[in-house]
User: Fold these one by one.
Assistant:
Number 1:
Amino acid sequence: MGLTYRSSGFGTNRTDFFRGSSTKADFVVALAGNPNTGKSTVFNALTGLKQHTGNWPGKTVLRAEGRYIYRGMVFKLVDLPGTYSLLAGSVEEQVAKDFLCFGKPDATVVVVDATCLERNLNLALQVLEITPRVVICVNLVDEARRKKIHLDIKSLAEELGVPAVATAARDGHGLDRLVSAVADVASGRIRTSPCVVRYSGAIEEAVLKIEPRIRELVGSEFSSRWLALRLLDGDRAVISAVNRWLAREEKAGRVTGGEILA
Amino acid sequence: MSRAPLAAGLEELIREVERVRPIVARDFNDQVVGHIYARAESIARKVVSQKERPKIDWDKRLDDILTSRMFGFPSMILLISAVFWITLAGANYPSELLAALLFRGQEYLADLCLRLNVPWWAKGFFVDGVYRCVTWVVSVMLPPMAIFFPCFTLLEDMGYLPRVAFNLDRLFKKAGAHGKQSLTMSMGFGCNAAGIIACRIIESPRERLIAILTNNFVPCNGRFPTLIVLAGLMVLGASGSPAATLVVAGMVIFGIGMTLAVSWVLSKTLLKGVPSSFTLELPPYRRPQVGRIVIRSVFDRTLFVLGRAVCVAAPAGGLTWILANVYAGGLSLLGHAAAWLNPFGKLLGMDGFILVAFLLGFPANEIVLPILIMSYLATGSMTRLDSLESLHMLFVVEHGWTWLTAVCMMLFSLLHYPCGTTLWTIRRESGSVKWTALSFLIPLGIACFVCFLAARSAVLLGLA
Amino acid sequence: MPDGIISLYDLPVGRSGVVSSIHADGLTRRRMMDLGLVPGTMVHALRHSPAGDPKAFKIRGAVIAFRREEAEKVLVEMREERD
């Protein structure tokens, strides 16, 4: 599952030759999605040959990065591991959620499969909990058309509260609109209003108790609701990630949180 | 600014979380996932509409054949054999053409050296050593790779590989291994090092190690041409014919059988445990992008593997030439080594030269056959070698090969040990010297044992 | 166990069922749920592997194969109608 050529091909042995690139990017864009959604096709189509691969720090998980230029700005595209969810806690999922939260990408593209939207929305909704700056890329619309599945992209965008673009990445269809939407979201030209999944009463109450304390600690840097949910889920990795981030911020001498450093 | 207030803040936060958690901890995750999926469902209901079903469900139609009880296994064997056959039949002619062309280059270079008064040892080292080994690697490897990789990528691109995993999972489960091991094996057909890296998709450390330790038994692209050439040699005159295909396919199936057997033994001994959970998505079949496949597999795979092989072949060719031309006591160093290894080689149905070639070919399996040819040429009288017929001449007539020699060399090549790159990758991925050593010793032991068994029984039965 | 509730493994090929509960825990449970196997989900049994096990199911538009050990941990309520 999720075994693609690039995730295991010879490229992974070539990493060292390409490490470190000098050009600075104006925006960092994360690319998330389920396995088998054509995420790699989107990545390849956008970045062409301007990509390099390596491992995520300390993990044996492939990290691929690429660049593209749009409207005179340089976009760095970071390909996250293909996962069905961000909740099960596998190494791939940890890498993906760490980057979405603490990597603070300027925009995140969630690639979803038009032929089975429902299961792909699971991941999309979870990403929206972490970051509001999301563009939904509804890929494989050509396959969906062949299967006589009709999608109302406009109402999908309304439901999720973020831009949605239909693409057939294999043939390059819709990619121009995708990069344009990404640029709008990354630069702040479009402000999104992502939908929020409400849970049962008890969970919401607990979140209400925890969330303000998180905001005190990290300010509005991260989604405090998502952090609260993860802490309630007993996710130790998130705690240590917050800890690492706090230490780094302090070292950099940046002001974090409200009252503590006031 | 001190670290204390923030750390204290975090600690207090965690204390608060611990206070609140017990109220919600029970089935927290279930509730969260349930709610998210419920929301996904309601959104999908509003967004997706399907007025009519497609007339033909191609995925189902294809799966009805490719994963059916009746046709599942036969179609799998047929597809794999077809790929081998296309490779065998298609590679033969371009291989000969390339060999002839590059050999003419060698003659031209030798001429040039003569005219420029290049000392004999320099000419020997560069032309008879480096150049000859590189050209052999190119002419033996390039055509089969340029055909095999696109064919294989085609199957991969269409979504067939997960079906292989689905079909074969029962066997892997019985062997105590993970179903996704068949995917890592498929990757191993291209390159074992890539197959080792692919083992990352197996989450359970126990099953991942099993997959890593046994990946060597799928013939990688470096050994595949060796099998093809030797199979062609065995059924000379009918190369590219069904007979040679059968031999190669038989070898591959034997390798798969060995993978399962070794996995089973490992999961009963060194890597005891129960199979972990297994879920596999069978994605829809996709229309392959033929053009892109060809480009991708030629540039990314073929040229990369070939480039690596050439890098190794050049120094190895030079070294072989030195070994074959530095004399000590009337016999070249290579001759000494071969003579010393000869009894052991004979025991395994081969000879000393073949074992030396395997030893020198440790950095990359693709150079084993070229090194062998070079060592034979250095001790034989033949100079021109550009077809299977002349190879037959060299091996069978001049060096006394029988069908058994070819079979034993194929078996040894199939089983022996992972190449240097692969071992380095195993060390990196497993992070353990012990498992790296075992991934070298286990295959070596098996290879020696199987070859010994094959050679002895053939002799005892009076077959050779 | 009420009538009509069977394990996912016993769901005959060609029949559908609705997930009533999942009796796996730890990572396996989370994996299953991530694939959309939450209570109330409609599951359709598609086919056996040629060797009998694993078995493939249609879950929320995707085809997912489970080994017997996993499929037995999911209970479903069989739907009467055939499609």
Number 2:
Amino acid sequence: MAEIKKNFSIKGMHCASCVRITERALKKVPGVSDAVVNLATQKATVNFDDSLCSQKDLAKSLETTGYKLEEERTDEQEEIEKRKELNQLKIKVLMSLALGGLILWGSFPGLIDTSPQILKNFFVQLILAIPVQFYAGFTFYQATIPALKHRTANMDTLVVIGTTVAFSYSVFVTFFPQIIESLGIEPMPYFDVGAIIIGLILLGRYLEAKAKAGTTSAIKKLLSLGAKTARVIRDEKEMDVAIEEVKVGDLIRVRPGEKIPVDGEIVEGESSIDESMVTGESIPVDKTKEDLVIGATINKTGTFVYKASKVGEETMLAQIIKLVRDAQGSKAPIQRLADEVSSYFVPIVIMLAFFTFGLWYTIGPEPTLLFALLNTIAVLIIACPCAMGLATPTAIMVGTGQGAEKGILIKDAKSLETANKIKTVVFDKTGTLTQGKPEVVDIIQLHNFNQDEILKIAASVEKGSEHSLAEAIVKKAESENINLEKIEKFEAVPGLGIKANIRQYVVLLGNRKLMDAEKIVIESSVMNEIEKLEDEGKTVMMLSLANNLIGLIAVADTLKDSAKEGVDALIKRGVEVVMISGDNRRSAQAIANKLGIKRVLSEVLPHEKENEVRKIQAEGKRVAMVGDGINDAPALAAADVGIAMGTGTDVAIESADITLVNKDLISVASAIDLSKKTMRTIKLNLFWAFGYNVILIPVAMGILYPNFGILLNPIFASGAMALSSISVVSNSLLLRKIA
Amino acid sequence: MTPDKIFAIIFTVFGIGFTYWYFLMKKDEVVSAKNEIDVVVQGGYNPRVIAIPQGKTTKINFIRKDKNSCLEEIVISDFKIKKYLPLNEKVTIELAPEEKGEYPYSCGMNMFHGKFIVQ
């Protein structure tokens, strides 16, 4: 008796009642101890005793209720299957090269003298060639015949035509040597050509498949990060449960050295956490109560308890994997040309092969039939459409995977391609270049009110606001233990400030535009004071009560550690850096000066940012906009490449083309670098793939024969063809080293 | 010119013409999918050109019967889909196109092509 747990996909569910029906149907099967069905994922987790019931019984029970049960395919299963296919391929490669080698020994000029007599026998060669042609080479026929039925042709078609021609000619020579001899041709079969071609092309495919597996290594690495179990506290008892059973709201204890199972918020304890595997951030992050923790990261020092907030497909890791997968399935615009060419390529090669045959047969040297046949085969075999097909996708796969490993998540191939052309990077100031957590640094009295009173009024009106400056003021009041007053008629004026009533007096708190709009007089001495504070990079908020300016509150935000380095890295690469901010010109300029940013767009209201981005685009520049992805979503969407700084555990920011989960501003330059390197690899791949075909097909046709007497032996053609697609994949893999 | 050479020229011209006609001049039959459609992956995609409705979810069931590694992946790049197709198994892909137009799809090696026409 063995109780096992398996996941299945259920087809045909559309509503919550389906969940009940399917669960009941599954539980009714003798041997099933539990069944949990999830409507969102269309999946069932079933605990059953496999000695009492089988998967078939489960499927049958569901079928009676109108649903279909299918075993869920895991990535591991896919791996196993691919490995199995690869092993079969390996056997075929070894077999065809061994048999082909024997035939070659018995027939190739130079080698033939050393071979045993038996290998020289044509009938023996035929027997050795049959399994290669029709067993190892079966996959080519299998692909070609249905393709021909659909009037399509591909690489296999070329291999089938080429090797079948060689094989058929050889069979003819074996059985009717006298006819060949009467044509003035030495009766020599070419069994070695077909066999070695099949062997080498299969070898190429085998090596290519192995190399291609490397292009998905980033995904595999991410998949392997997930924790398998979690130590959940339920009913005051701690128990280890499988990761799939963790529910939102579960309390989970994590001890030093353990992997954090899912995303959540710390409720007790503190620790230092290594998040490098998910965010690419290399320095461990200290976290305490109310901080968010990310599943699959490693707890270093302390023990803490946290509340699961995201499980399953919702976790940050799952989102990252989905994002990378999606990007790898997308197509780069540069691929269009290769797409276009590849749809005509094979038929054109077949036409060229016919042409080669006609040309050599009519005006070629004697024996014309033999030359015509061998050159036709060489043309068919040398053509390598695969390299063209692989040139772009493999590089995109490695590039996006490399990005993910460094905490740079790229939405699609198009974004990766566009990032390469970025000339201007616009940074949103607050929350992007700065921490976004401003603090109150100065309170200036302008009337009879003391500092505490100013803070009290300001904090009272700001209490209901969500603005980051408001938060700073309220926080300051809380730290000074100031009791807030009740307010009425609260009104937030976007980009300007706040209007509210306290004790029937109108209170205004905001910037100069607000004061101007409400016709509040600002004396010149106060103006000087404001300018002085702004020159220091502080944001000044003015407080007026009953139409009198009563105080100033200066708030300053600290720059992020990586801001200077991030901006420098871009300037060094010749990229223009622009800062965009809602702050007034002076404080914005002060921050920009600290960072060495020359172009500043200040006093830009949130909804105007998009317009500013378009204005820069109108100058003929490709623009990347870096923001938090929430307040500046329209600007991110308007930019050629929208780059969002990751916040919390959400990675799939809708409006962003690139998300920096590592929150490191140097990554903006790294993303551009990655894009440049990936594009360089793609271009090199395409150049190679096109160049290879453009140069070698004419050589195979015999273009060098009249002047240099050079012809391409079909066996060498198959070697070159195998090498060509491997070299493209290997070149893409090189990106892992240089990116 | 000897008769065999004349024959070779005729053979060549016929071969080129036939290849052009057979592969490059074919007209695809458009098959309309209603909610769901099975696409057999064998030496290409059958049916190859599929009409699907706009704004509705259509299930495309790919069943790969071809051992050729070229066809082991399906790529529908406009929908950012790249999926492994295990041999002889049904893999369902749901498409809910919002805009009309033609959306090409191909195998992982970009050798076999097809398209969805959203009407």
